[in-house]
Amino acid sequence: MKTPILARTRIRQALFAATALAVLQFAPLPCLTAGTRITGELRQWHKVTLTLDGPSARETDTAPNPFTDYRFEVTFRHESGSPEYHVPGYFAADGNAANTSATAGNQWRAHLAPDRVGKWTWHVTFVRGKNAAVDTSVPVEPVADLDGLTGSFEVSATDKAGRDFRSKGRLEYVGKHYLRFAGTGEFFLKAGTDAPENLLAYADFDGTYSNRRQGQTRPGEATPTGLKTWQSHVRDWRRGDPTWKDGRGKGLIGALNYLSGKGCNAFSFLTYNAGGDGDDVWPFVERNDKFHYDCSKLDQWQIVFDHAQARGLYLHFKLQETENDDHNGPGAAQSLDGGDLGPERRLYLRELIARFGHELALNWNLGEENTQSAEQQRAMARYIRDTDPYHHLIVVHTYPDWQDRVYSKLVGDQSALTGASLQNSWSAAHQRVLKWVNESANAGRPWVVANDEQNPAEMGVPPDPGYAGQDGVATQGGKPYTLHEIRKFCLWGTLLAGGAGVEYYFGYRFPQNDLNCEDWRSRDRSWDYCRIALAFFRDHRIPFWEMANADALVGNPAHDNSRYCFAKAGEVYVVFLPNGGTADLDLGESAAAFSVRWFNPRTGGELQGGDVREVKGPGKVNLGTPPVDGAEDWLVLVTR
Predict the structure, then answer these.
(1) What is the pTM of this model?
(2) Cα 68 to Cα 257: distance, rounded to the nearest angstrom
(3) 467 near 509, Cβ under 8 Å?
(4) Least confident among 224-228, 322-326, 558-562
(5) Class of the 545-639 domain?
(6) 637, 598 in Cβ contact below 8 A?
(7) Hey, how many other C-beta atoms are within 10 angstroms of the C-beta on 174?
(8) Does 545-639 match 5-155 at the fold level?
(9) pLDDT number for residue 19
(10) What values do phi and psi take at 218, rounded to 5?
(11) Which CATH number fits domain 165-184+205-539: 3.40.50.920, 3.90.226.10, 3.20.20.80, 3.40.50.1820?
């Protein structure tokens, strides 16, 4: 167990007192042995770890502070000269803190996920100076016997297959509305969960506790219920899966197995919510100490994230909550530098990138319902871009009625952002995604746009009918809706607007909501619909990355929810009929023949024939009617 919070606070106070007269001084370094180790599977796209025997330190040291006062970086370079990555490193306590809960040691680490087979070289930069990690302008001195170390290792081809991202490579932003795997060239669509936002408030993680009383409810929020055990998913843990500290972690690891097994491929989580809804997630040794990081907790997070990637689950890092993102919210005292890019924020971002940036499939989200100024958002995004050697996707999330005022100041070359995480009514998903797909393209930098939170806020995506006695019915403006409307107008509305995918938010009124969810089976049928949608594009080889929304071709110039069309004109058309029936499709000037096949978004399966099997242009053609259940929702695939 970690030292109790109060005791650790007293230790820290004693350390401050002992160094009060020399807070800017550094004790002489002992003679160090330049021990280095390269560990991990030395394969393309796998995590390779360089560990050094470096300066001994404690998490709570203040002079020098191991997090702020050392700048440890490793340059990894392929033998061909490209790529070359400048990777930030970090203090790792005893090197096994996930299992020992160590708070001290002399181990320092950096991670690489190598792009190419062959020989890689590494070169260490290791300097010290007050605030050297967060300010490159301060005077520094090299750490003897470590600064300038070099070495090499050989990387072979990956041996992974299937869902494991190591079989596909890193997801990269390539100037399109979709991310692409660098290894296989495949483009990526996501579908998964946006809840619970405090997923990392897990009892099996070291140093984790809730700062909110159980049952203490604030207006417009769910009721806190304490730390999660993820007990419902312990049964989904499998022999050979990772754990830590003699078997901890099975519940959350099992939950990821379940989500992956349902065919989903994404989940999100806050990494800092002090002062927010849950007030139970932070990476620090103490809630309010923003300059000392909890090595064992973060190593345990890394075990979870590494497993998620092996199970084909994309990591959506939500870096802060609306309450603590600037100096105005109820959690303003917990904000990092009041929203500015100061030493607290720089260190926070650097630590997360150093520890988790090697993961292949992720995005950095500036914050949930972010209220920072445009200048602060630009500065934060720019720092992430400049610090992250792999240039992962950078997005921002905001309130539904703030989208125009926020995103309009960030599209194009105004910022380093490469995407948007949208919150809006489920029924407006199609229109809002389409707006920011088009606005970003028109500004010269196409964004990767996803629908990640569905309003109304208290309802979100309801549980399955029958779960915990629920009827599966929610309301919006006094009108009922169910998971079927979510499927039609949120899931397919997003995908056929040119969106990169969806994450489902659970509201705060239902059981298993956005704050207390520990059982993803509460939305089991919704995950089935997500799996079916992803399978449609994959199994039928739909070139979605070459397609664009074309609602006008099916008589819907207003882009309302009556019907959708997604097209690569003259080649392939996907028409969605939410209420069945038929549609006319404008084939333009093409006189080619096109096949007409139907896909059931409720059950999936093979393409089916309707009463019209082939059409030929030019001009408008009627697509006929579905093979069965003519009043239900159907997709029509029209291919040349």
Answers:
(1) 0.94
(2) 36
(3) no
(4) 224-228
(5) mainly beta
(6) yes
(7) 15
(8) yes
(9) 35
(10) -110, 150
(11) 3.20.20.80
